Amino acid sequence: GLFVSHPRAHGPIAREPWRFGEQALAVFRSYAKLRYRLMPYVWSSAHESVRTALPLMRPLMLDWQDDPNTACIDDQWLFGEHLLIAPILDESNARRVYLPAGRWFDWWTGAVVHDADYGRWINVHAPLDHLPLYARGGGIIPMCDDMAHTGEKPWNPITLRVYPHGESAFTLVDGDEQIAYRCVESSAGIAVEIGANTRTHHVQVFLATLPKTVQVNGCAAAWSYEGGSVRVMVEGEARVEIR
User: Fold this and answer.
1) Which of 35, 84, 110, 138 could form a disulfide with 2 if both were Cys (CB 3.0 to 4.6 A apart)?
2) Which of 191, 183, 186, 237 lies closest to 214, judged by CA?
3) What digits encode the pLDDT tens for the residues 209-236?
4) DSSP string for 7-68
5) Residue 57 contacts residue 102 (beta carbons within 8 Å)
6) What is the pLDDT of residues 130-158, one digit of tens each?
7) Which CATH superfamily is domain 17-136 in?
8) Which residues neighbour 21 within 8 Å (Cβ) at sequence distance 6 or greater?
9) Cβ atoms of 165 and 138 closer than 8 Å
10) Within a 13 Å sphere around the CA of 65, how many CA atoms are in the beta-carbon half?
11) What is the chain's alpha carbon radius of gyration, rounded to the nearest angstrom?
């Protein structure tokens, strides 16, 4: 799998993806591209793991210790704090997925699939190239452009995927630079704050309904609503307000 701390496509037995046909290679390539695009999130989450001793790949029971359903789940995990991975391990293209208490978004569609103070099981059908992958409400996930290797180019621009739920924060770590992100969801709307930096950010805030206004630093901004998300581009330090 590519949603672990140390993915490997080689080993003592022949398991390189090109050995299993064109379909397997295409599926592997799509996930490898996503892994590399997630590198700002992965690297920053690994930095947080060093700071807190919480693993990058963690069982659900670590975050939901009072939920007995999570105690015996050994085929789902959190990848960092904000992504839930639930691979399908047979040829059925289907499985049951447990979503713990909170708000959960389908990664591929952006739709909210669960929003409650209790967990629930859902039945999922997923093709090979769309494994069950969910973003946790409150998640702030920085991504970069496609890369062939981690050092190919700087992380600029950043695509910032924001999944509102209450108040949340995330810190991007890139060498000696850190960028603080914060999202606040309230009755007045949603505010996304991007700390001091010199980069371009393509902000995507996932919402079920079309908003009335979008402002950047207190001024009307050009924006669009696509795929269930508000999209707006900002330069440097910024505050995006959505109502």
Assistant:
1) 35
2) 191
3) 999 999 999 999 999 999 899 999 999 9
4) --S--SS---GGGG-HHHHHHHHHHHHHHHHTHHHHHHHHHHHHHH---SEE-HHHH-TT-G
5) no
6) 999 999 999 999 999 999 998 899 999 99
7) Golgi alpha-mannosidase II (2.60.40.1180)
8) none
9) yes
10) 1
11) 18
The vertex-44 CA angle with 243 and 200, nearest 5°, equals: 50
What gap in Å lies between CA 121 and CA 36, rounded to an integer?
30
CA distance 62 to 77: 10
Domain boundaries, the chain: 17-136, 140-242
The candidate with the shortest Cα–Cα distance to 158, out of 97, 101, 233, is 233
For residue 202, give both structure tokens: 């393509």
CB 55 within 8 A of CB 63: no
Q: State the CB neighbour count (10 A cutoff) for residue 96.
A: 12
Q: Does 140-242 match 17-136 at the fold level?
A: yes
Domain 140-242, architecture per CATH: Sandwich (2.60)
